[in-house]
Every structure is written in structure tokens, then in C-alpha cells.
Batch of 2 targets.
Target 1
Amino acid sequence: MSTWDAVWAGLIHILEPSAFFYMMLGIVISSTLVALPGIGSKTAIALLLPLAFTLDKFEAICLIVSVWAVSNTANSITSILFAVPGGSGSQATILDGYPMARNGEAARALSAAFTSSALGGIFGAMVLAISLPVLKPLVILLGPPEFFVLILFGIAMVSTLSGKNKAKGLVIGILGLLISSVGIHLVSGIPRFTFGNLTLMDGLNLIPVTIGLFAIPELISLVASGSSISKMELNNLDSGRRQGIRDSFTHWWLVIRSSLVGVWVGMIPGLGSSVADWFAYGHARATEKGAEESFGKGDVRGVIAVDSATNAKEGGSLIPTLAFGIPGSSTLALVFGGLLIVGVKPGKEILTTQLDVTFSFIWLLIIASVITSLLCIIFIKPLAKATQVRPTLLVPVICALSVVGAFANSNNFGDIIVMATFGVFGYWLRLHGWPRPPLLLGLVLGPEAERHLWTSYQLYEWEFVLRPITGSLLILLILIMGWPTLKKLFGKQKEANV
Amino acid sequence: MSLTISRTLLGLSFLALFTYTLLSGLDMPFRASMLPVLASSLALPLTLLALYLEYKKGNEKKSQAEESSGDLAVSESEVSVDAFRRVRYFFLWFACLIASAHLLGFLIGLPLMVLIYLLANREPFKLSIFLSLMVLMILYWGFQKGLVLPLPRGILTTMLFGG
């Protein structure tokens, strides 16, 4: 299949009526769930995955990818209206979005955020499309040892989410790898860590673990905090929408620069939305005229920079995911896991024989971003009201759906117990500052890591770590993880010398 | 249980778990043991390092706020006495939700527990009924009919009304 055939086929696949319907369903559900307090994109994807598994390949791709691709758009609502970040990628939106809302420009700020989100999404998708010819020969060059180390690299990078104590993130990532090994080993037939339990013989499924690890602790958090943002008043949402849209196009150069920042952050596994928004905001503040004085007081450019970067990041993060099978974030790991189950395997195939699937991702990013932004602009008021739903109404309904979601995966009641166990474990981890995302990444990448490890050993024995690319990657990994400690040590030595 | 005890317990659980996976892995055939042994032998020293760093940091509240960055951070209001009381009630309700799904079946047990939760939290009666019925509709039309998912009828329901 030539590249142009693949571009065309990718578009046709997602414009099929049933696939398009599931894309729209994904957009509506994702935007609504993300707008609800305490329900993040991971919870939304985890709740929708059981539905995706009953669909055909492209319908499932449309549902899963659209839920993920648009999850950063509706995040801005609570940030702008109530100064409460809707997700990790919308923290910097508060700095200028909230002052704008207080000045009576809420609709303008929201429209600018949604429009720049769409433009950022389109930009990210285009960068992904342009990078494909470069990626193809690179991926073909790599063998099992390199892929094994790249997986370790991905897990280690995501473990940086654990803040200053990176060891915690690494421990949790490794725990994810170990959890992926639960069940009967497919090649040797040996049961591993099953304790004779039938549910564990099949291994731990992604859906109950994800629902438990991410949805349940967030619900517990809602219960624990016992508060909602419902008492805060909704600011003026009637006028200013057109102005907001115009602002995004007027500052097109800022949109492009911020999107580039987003794509760059997305391409590096482990640097998530929470970094992209601050980088973009910092860049805009440093480069825009008069920003030093106006930023932080309600400058629309602050909103535009952040929102274009967080959405462009998604296109960038698909580059390592599709090419090397390394999801750059826990949300993408979940998407990646879902895609694996519906038969889409990132790596060589998706860049060669299944190029139409790759282009359907790119088209989805573009079309879903535009549709979501339009819908969000049109339905600003209902979405703003959704942010005010009381937690006491949300918690029991989502808990009930979580139970069915975990069960629907394999029609096995044991999966509900798995979900509940991981729910309690996730809450425990969260309470003590152990990050949960690396566990998901380890769980999803575990089987691939084991396969590559074994093949590498068969080919080169343990000397595979000495191969040029593998060795360089390992040294780079050690340097990245150990850099803060080394810096501290050298700093102390320098001080002592002085 | 205080936060310090709970935190220590979590760290010790990790150490125990990784020791167990390492020892079990050593008993497995080479091919099946490769990943568990490699992962556990890396995890054990890393856990000790993580615990040492945490111990060194000392200040409980400060470290929580810092370490949670990237994941959703725990707020002050979530670690108050009141918050833990609410969480305890939630766990109790959640256990009952799963038990009722098992005993009464999904179509009766889940909407019933949703109703109980809403009424216990003093939500308006009509709204509580409406939401419980909505859950029932989603389960029946969305999952049982739409996704053709055979939702279990529950042990008690089957005993009383037959299979």
C-alpha cells in the first residue's frame, strides 16, 4: 500500500457511519466525563474500554482514540471558571483564564482555549504524519535488545512522575512488570504467582486493574474531600465567544510555537501534560510582547499558549508509541493496552503493512479535535453546569458502572474482586505519594518486555546489553535517573573544595 | 491507624512482596523466571532506597505534597479525621455494593445500593429514585441488551426465584 493510499484508506475507515458514530460517542462521553469533578481521562477510558472490545477494529480505534485525543479540551472549563484544574494539563490555564473569567470574559477565554486546542491538535497530528517517513527506517533498524531497553527507558521516564523520589516510581513500574507476569506462562506452561486461583491463572486483565487503580481512588478522593465546586458562581458565559475564536487565529504564530513545545514534550516519554502547559506558558511569557506585565492578569495569550501545547502534545506522544511501542504517559498506556487487545500492534507493522491504521489515528486527532472544540464552544453552558454536579451524585453511579465495567471484561466475578483490591491498593499508594502511572505502563509493556528479553538472550546471551544502541540507551538511562544525585554529590564536593 | 504506620506498612509490604517474587522466581524454569527474577532483584534495592529517601525527608505532610506531583496530589482535606471517617463508610458501602451484586444480582443489587448511598447522603428522594432507575436502565438496555452481556442474577435471587 502506497503512502497516499494509506492516507485515503485511513480517512475512509473513520468516515464509515458506524466508526464515525463511535468517534462522536467517544467525544461526547469524554468531554462530559472530563468536565465532571474528579473524573479524569483515565477513568473515562477505563469505563469505556469494555464497550470497545465488543466492536470491530476501526470502531474500537475510533472510540478509544477519540476519548483520549479530546480529553485535554474540556479540562479547561473548571480551570477558567473556578480556578480548579480539571486535569494535570490545565494547571497553567488558571493563571490567565481565571482572571479573564473574573473580568467578565469567561466565554472569550473558554472559546480561545477550545479553538487553540483544536489548532494544537491539528498541528500535532501533522507533525506525526510528517515524521512517519523518518521513523520507518529507524524502527526497522532496531532489534529485540533495543526494544527491551526502550521499554525499560519508557517505564523509567514515566517513573519521573514520582517527583523527587524517583526510586518510588521505578519500584512501582517494576511492580507493574511483575503483575504482568501473573498467570500461566504461555511458553513453558508454568503458573506464576497464581496461588492456585482460577482467576489469576488467566493473568490480571488490564480493565479491572485500571478501573481499580485509577477510577476507585479518585472516587475515594471525592468522598474524602467531601467538597464540590458547586457553590461557586458561574461567570458570564454569554458574550465573547467570537472574540475568543478570533484571538486564536490572530495569535497564530504563538499557537504554532506553543504547539511545537507541546509536540516536543509529547515525544519524550514521561513528560506529560503537566509539563507541556508550564513550558508553553513560560515560553509565551518570555517571548510575547508586554507579557511580563500582562500575563497572570487575564491575558488571552496565556490561555492560547497553554491549550495549544497540551493538545499538540498528543500527536507528539504518538510518535514513540506507534514507532517503538512505548507510551509516553499512563493515559496513553491505557490506550495502547486497549489497541493491543483489539489487534493493533504498534511497531514495525503499523508503519509498514498497517499504515492505514496509523493514518486513521492522524485523521482522528484532526477531526476529533475540531469537532470537540466546536461542540465545547456551542455547549459551554451545559458543560459548565456539569462541572458543578455534587460528588454524592457521581460516586455511587460511577462505582456501579465500574463494577459492571470490570465484570464485562471477561464475564468473571473474580475481576470485580481484582478491581476492588486494586482500588484499595491505588488509594493506599496515592495516600503515601507512590505514583500509580508507572504500574500501568509496566503492566501493559510487561509481556512485550519479556518477549524481547528472551529473544535478546537467545540471540546474544547477556552480551545483548553491550550492543552499541542498547548500551548507549542504558548509559543514558542511568545518567538521567542518577543525574540529580550526581549533581548533588559534585555540588557538595565543589563546595568543600571552595 | 496513623499515617506513619500505614506508610511503613506499605514499604514493608513491598519488601516482602519482592522477596517472595524473587524466591518464587528462583524455583521456576529459567525461561519463566527471567523477568520475575530480574525485576525483583532490581526492585528490592530500589525499594530500600525509596524508603531511605522517604525516611530522610522526614516531614510527613511536606513529602506527600511533593511526591504526589504528576499523579494527583493528596489535599489537606483528604487526610483529616473527618475524611478518613467518610472513607471508612465508603469502603463499607463499596463492600456491600459488591456483595449485593453477588447475592441479589446486578440488576437489583447495584441500583439498590446506589439508592441507599444517595438517601444516606441526604439527596432528595425523587432524584435518588431517578438516578437509581437510570443505573438500572443503563445496566439493562446498555449492557444486557446492547452489549449482550449476561449479567448474573445473584445467588439469593436464583435460590428464591429459580435459575
Target 2
Amino acid sequence: MKRSRTVQLAFMGTVPLLVTACGGPAAGPRPDERLAYQDVQQCIQDGKVSKETCEQEYQAALQARAQQSHYGNYNDCASQWGDQCRPYVTSSGEHWFIPALTGFMIGRMLGHRDYYYPGPYYGGGGWHGPYRDRPGRGGWDNRPGYGGYGTPPRGPTTAETLSRGGFGYSGAARSSWGG
Amino acid sequence: MERIIAGERSDWRELAGKMGFHFHTLDGAPYWDESAHYRLTLREVEQDLENPTEELHEMCMDLVSRAVRDEQYLQKLAIPRPYWDFVRTSWLRGDPHLYGRMDLAYDGHGPAKLYELNYDTPTSLYECAVFQWVWLEQGIERGTLPRGADQFNSVQQKLQQVFEFIGSRLNAVIHFASIRDVVEDLATVEYLQDLARQAGLRTQYIAMEDVGVSREGRYTDLNNHVIEAIFKLYPWEFMFSDEFSRFLPGANAVWFEPPWKAILSNKGALALLWELHPNHPNLLPAYFDDAPRAELPRGWVRKPFFSREGANIEMSTTGGQHLAAPGPYTDGPFVRQAFHPLPAFGSVHSLIGSWVIGDQAAGIGIREDDSLITRDTARFVPHAIVD
């Protein structure tokens, strides 16, 4: 197949989009319905799926979120995410703080009991990046911003802004410039 | 490769609205046009488009690695001297890039010819990656396209891979910036931002005009947070002439596209590619134009280094017809490229935009125009692979 297997938009447009390519050897199940909610309550009130499914899918999204970012104490979390931090207890009983979920999505697959959610993706497994090895191109972990795996995230740095409006005016003077 | 006239989906406008594709019609004229589509074979796609795209991309990467080691190149490309180190360092450090698009002339016969590179601020991304893809899926589902039809379009999948890769290494908010109130650019930025968020990256939109600068010479957002990483849909050559450009070398920000893209977003690169690879089957002869005011001989096209969307392109066909597109890019140097007419399908001319995402050929979007010069009014027409 020469095309993307699935196309998903989580935030753009008025409804979340998740479509799996049909036909071709690699086709997966097609979603016949895509639901997005801010929280469990909203999901239950909508009544399209059972209360259990709402809770289960929310927990799954939360778990994916926690795998992606978690902190041992509130202050570390807050330095990165501000007041978005929520306590989270793992299945093995560890107490973490994680950034709150802004929403979760359920895609009900035709004839399947599988559900998809657009949680924080986990790249996991086998993919080593599209960038081919090339002399002189290996150093991009070694600079500010690029922490590499396992580096504790740094909080946003605040700085006094002296002036604004020093970018963007060469473009405005041109009638067309997009590529 | 054939152009097929076909009926539109009756509900595509409604679908476009739901999917955030608001610029499908521009100033009353269609931009998305599915009253026709192109049909290619898998062999045409793989041998004539995908492989040459990867080969041309490798030649481009080779050109960058030469240019950062030889000041003559930077000079010829008219990159302002104060930014030579900035550009150089960004390549030598290995700053990753997201994407680029090359425009190819191809009609199913003979080798595809490279017209231009759009390697810094390419647009028409979302309509290619998403709306075109959904068009194919619905066509198969509704029986207007054969069951086994496919599309050369893994743009979304490859962008997701790139963002996952970046997300695994970048510990910073990525700001996404475009010029305020330009709806088409905003859609491109929103789309990339959506993918970045799906990959778990933290993102923040900022209008290019709102970027601030701190006492320490770092760029800041509207919350006075230091901008550590930023995607800008705004060309490097404009950045270099803006007031805040003087802070670039010291601002310590991660840029997408990276500064080394200044070398490839510049039509001077076409002349350098020809110099390095004369008679390459996918290149057209191109030279720096030493006499841009002189009359253009037959069989040549004159292009400003920094023109976009066909602006200020002057063309003298082999038959002696003279064409010129107006535009704002009257200053700066020019290149001359051998005239090679756009393929004609009936009364329309089409141009193939071939995407490179994270160093891989990733798919195509076809634009149609009634003129030999493809302008910003060119319509986006979908394609299918059918064997």
C-alpha cells in the first residue's frame, strides 16, 4: 500500500477524525463511529456507549498519558505543566503526578470490540527515525532542548519581554509568498 | 498517467467544513477540484516519481553539505553573510527537518523534470495528506473507484513518524508560528500542530508578529515563556531581513525548518544542482542569470531566487511566445532554467508536487492551471493508483 494506513485528526475540524484505509493487504477494521469526550461524565451522558466503556476508555487514555509524562511530586509536575497536574496511582501502587487529560476519543470498530483512543501516542517498537545516517548529522541530541531519552523535563523559562513585532513584516509586504 | 473526468461527491463541501478544510474555495474560485482526477500506474509512481524524488533529495542533501563547507556557495546563494555561521552550524549539528516538496513536470512519458524545490515553507500539505486520502477512501467505498485503487500518499504516516522521533528527543514546547490571518497557512500549521500533539508533544500557536525578544536576546511568546523550539511557516530569507533577525544566532532556539533549509529554499540551488550533476535526467539545465535585465532568449525561463507561487516568473517558449507573471519579487538575483513545458491534459496544465518527509519520498499532490506558469490559483486535483 502506497498510502497511509490510517489518517487521524484529533483537534483540527469540528469532529475528531479516525479512518483506517480500506482494501489492500494491510487494511484494519474500519471505524463506523468516532466519539470524543472531555471527561467520563460527558461520555456517560451522551449514552452512545456503556458507562463501563466510558470508564474503561478514559482509564486507558489516562494510563497512556501517565506512561508518557509522570513526576514523583507535585512541584516537579507543576514546573512543567502549571496547574494541569493531577495525582495518579499506578497499578503497582506508585503515587505519581501527571498532566491532566484534555479529552479522550473512542472509535468503535465495525464488528469488533476494539476501541481506539488518540491518547498520547507511544512510538514504541522498531522505528528508528526517518533520518538516515549521514556524516555530520549525528549531533542533534547534544543541544539545549534536545534532552534525549530519560532526561528529566525542564520547566518553561520565563523572561521579561522587551519588545515584540520584529518578525513577520517582510512577508506582509509581499502579495504572495506561500510555497 | 491519464486525466479522468468524473463526478464530484455530492457532500464533499460539508465534509470539508467538518474536517477544517476551509480554503477549498479561494476568492470564489475552486481550489479543491474533484471534477477530474489523475490515474497513474504503480510502475509510474515508483520508477518515475518515488525513486527520482529520493535521488534528487539525496543530491540536495549533498549540496547542503558542500555549501556549508564552501563560502563561495553561500555567496552565490545570496545568503546574508551575518548568518553564514548560523546556517552552517545548524547543518553540522544535524538539526532535523520535517518536510519539503519538489515540483516535477511529468506526464507518464520520459523522466520527471525538477522545476523547483519548496524546502522551507511548502504548503498544500493538509489537502494532500488528508483530504485527498479521504477522497480515495470514499471513492472505493462508494464504488466510484476500483476496489484495489491506491494512492501515493503516506504523508500523514511519515509526518507522524517524524513527530514521534522528535518527541522522543525534544524536551520543550514547540511553538507553531505563521503570519496572522492567512487562512491557508493557518491550516497547514494547525495540521502539523495536531500531529505533533498526537505524538505527545506540547505545542503552542503564536503569530509570527507576536514573537517577542527578551533582555537576554531569547525569543518569547505571549506568556513571556522563552521559545525553545519553533516551527515557522515563514521563509528564512524574510527572517534574515526582519528586525529581530539579529537575535537569531544567540537565541538558542530549535527551528523547524532548520536554518540550513535556507540553502534549498533558494532557486540558486537549481543552478548549483545542474553544475554538480550536469545532464542528470531529472534536472533541467539551469544557470545563474548574470544579466537579469537582458531580453530572455527563446527556450528559457527566468526565476527570481526567492519567488513563490509562480510570482515574477518570465518565460520565453521555444516557439517564441513570451509570458510573464507579476509579483513582488523584483529585487535580488535570478536563475535561468531551460524551458520545459508543463504537461498538457486537454486544455489544462498539471504540475506534480512530490513530498519528502524526514528524508523519504512520501507522496504527491497534483495542481492544475490553465496557464504554463503554475500560480497560487492552481487547483488541487486528486489522484489514484490503478493498475
